[in-house]
Design goal:
It is built from no helices and seven strands. The protein has strands spanning 6-13, 16-25, 28-34, 40-48, 61-66, 70-74, 79-86.
């Protein structure tokens, strides 16, 4: 896998938000979600429920829903849903 498949991004929600640290490795997305104060809220491995690959994290943005059960990414043309499988 390419080394550009890492992303740290803020996802704002009404009243609060979370930081997401994403690493795409061997078909799985490793996600750590942090509170605004930097405390770990959850960490786990997520599997893409579509067959589409992430070409690059450079143009990828985290979207809703983004929580500890499912993570959604938007790459400018497609919405990719990842379901938690471990962690």
């Amino acid at each position: 896998m390419a080394t550009d498949k890492k992303l740290t991004q803020w996802l704002s929600r009404e009243g609060v938000g979370s930081w997401f640290d994403l690493n795409y490795l061997e078909g799985l997305l490793k996600v750590t979600r942090y509170s605004p104060s930097g405390e770990t809220e959850c960490t786990g491995l997520y599997k893409n429920n579509t067959s589409e690959d992430i070409p690059s994290m450079e143009k990828t943005h985290i979207a809703y829903p983004g929580n500890c059960k499912v993570v959604t990414l938007y790459n400018g043309k497609s919405t990719l849903m990842f379901d938690r499988v471990a962690g």
